[in-house]
Write a structure and sequence with these properties.
The strands form two sheets. Strands 3-4-5-6-2-1-7 form a seven-stranded mixed sheet. Strands 9-10-8-11-12-13 form a six-stranded mixed sheet, sandwiched between helices. By secondary structure, the chain is α/β, with parallel strands linked by helices. A hairpin with a 6-residue loop joins strand 1 and strand 2. It contains 16 helices and 13 strands. The chain is flat, with a radius of gyration of 29 Å.
Length: 458
């Protein structure tokens, strides 16, 4: 792997498909040499004008033929993304022509870049740390504006700086401990209460990152929200109106939905995987029974529930059973069919579910659907849960857990009156974990795992 990092690499950096502009990127010591074999400028030499877009033509020098018109831009290592010579060639966004440019570049001495290899080189050359590199990929793949904002801040180094601050605090604690051990006659002993408070503060700071993981996971993967209720309460109609498209089949007959349907819904920057499930009730055939079983499984695993009750019918045992079984879940009660005469005893239901937010809606007329969307955001991803800094990856979560574990062990040993040298060793163990977190300690396996998730050309 290390031998190939000296190669000059080339790849298409714009997404697959047709477009107005397509971008070819090269990086490596021969990037400009290779680029000038396949792209000829009319007037300006990019080597003499780094950072300037120079007009010219994509050429097949082997056949002495012009293929496309565009611009070339050369970046010196001190300002380039990879800290190598980098060249970007902008052409028309024809997949055929872009692939031909890459083919010509390879024929002229470059090789095709591996997924994420440009960012890998940026990391290995010190342009980015590993957290920033992960954030680059998160930003590219962001599914919501909230995730994009967080990822961009992390590309800029916000999370790395917070970890560096924690590391500095740990170093200061260690310095005080070791000074006490080295110079006992100088009466430099840390007061146990002060040391305890500093350890508690570090644990609390790291614990906030750990708590943020669920929010980060929700941003990356989305929250699963199941629409549940007895048969014919209007679940599929509500599913369609929330999505603003006719996704689920709707009929006046009970049991229309036998399987589940899942679609993504973006609400206020939060990605929700909305699931329309089969209605609860007495199954009339094995297929319907399987659908109800599947609905129960989905409901039990969902992050939140939209419990749909039919206002036009009296409440039933199925309604109370469903509400009782879902007490441990975040949920909203939607009294559907508000456009019809109310037959349900709403007070009776709410008396037994006082903590649940509810709303009268009509999936048919659209009444209060906008308010329901707002309530879903508030309930399933409340503002109190949103944190400024979020960890998005299991790798990061595991390392944070390890840091907390060692600091907590140091705290316990302090409370148990262990010697300072034992406490210091426990605290010292956290430093290499922080180094692994931000990528100062390089692991080939971790690097391969992270960069294999990148797209080609980044």
């Amino acid at each position: 792997m290390n031998e190939s990092l000296d190669d000059t690499i080339i790849a298409i950096s714009t997404p697959p498909g047709e477009g107005g502009i397509g971008l070819i990127r090269l990086s490596g010591q021969d990037a400009l040499v290779v680029a000038q074999k396949i792209f000829k400028t009319e007037k300006l030499n990019p080597a003499d004008h780094p950072g300037l877009m120079c007009f010219g033509y994509l050429v097949d020098s082997f056949r002495d033929e012009k293929l496309d018109v565009g611009y070339i831009c050369y970046f010196k290592p001190e300002v380039s993304y990879t800290r190598e010579d980098v060249v970007e060639i902008s052409l028309h966004g024809s997949p055929l022509m872009l692939n031909e440019a890459v083919r010509l570049g390879i024929k002229s001495g470059a090789r095709l870049a591996r997924p994420g290899e440009f960012t890998l080189r940026a990391y290995l050359h010190g342009r980015l740390d590993i957290v920033q590199a992960e954030a680059v990929n998160d930003l590219i793949r962001a599914v919501s504006i909230d995730q994009a904002r967080i990822s961009f801040r992390q590309v800029e180094g916000s999370l790395s700086k917070k970890l560096q601050t924690i590391r500095q605090e740990i170093i200061e604690v260690l310095a005080s401990l070791e000074a006490s051990l080295e110079f006992p006659e100088e009466d430099l002993n840390l007061e146990p209460d002060e040391l305890h408070n500093r350890l508690e503060g570090l644990i609390n700071d790291l614990q906030k990152f750990l708590w943020s993981y669920q929010q980060g996971k929700a941003m990356l993967e989305g929250l699963t929200i199941a629409i549940v209720g007895r048969t014919n309460v209007g679940k599929s109609t509500l599913f369609n109106v929330l999505l603003e498209e006719e996704r689920a089949i709707v009929t006046p007959y009970a049991g229309t939905t036998r399987d589940f349907i899942r679609e993504d819904l973006l609400l206020d920057g939060v990605r929700m995987k909305l699931v329309d499930t089969a209605g609860f009730g007495q199954a009339e055939n094995p297929v319907e029974e399987a659908g109800i079983t599947m609905a129960k499984n989905i409901a039990s695993e969902a992050d939140g529930l939209l419990v749909i009750l039919d206002s036009s019918r009296p409440e039933s045992q199925e309604d109370f059973y469903l509400l009782e079984k879902s007490r441990e879940k975040k949920r909203i009660i939607a009294f559907n069919k508000a456009d019809l005469k109310h037959m349900i005893n709403r007070r009776k239901i709410l008396e037994k579910n006082k903590e649940v937010l509810w709303l009268d809606v009509s999936a048919l007329t659209g009444e209060n659907i906008g308010e329901l969307r707002k309530l879903m955001t508030k309930t399933f991803m409340s503002e109190e849960e949103k944190q400024e800094e979020i960890i998005l990856h299991e790798r990061q979560k595991i390392l944070i857990e390890q840091m907390i574990g060692h600091l907590d062990e140091a705290r316990i040993k302090l409370e148990s009156a262990y010697g300072l040298e034992i406490i210091a060793e426990e605290v010292k163990t956290v430093l290499p974990i922080i180094g692994e977190f931000i990528g100062e300690i390089k692991s080939a396996e971790v690097i391969d795992q992270i960069f294999s998730r990148f797209c080609l050309g980044k």
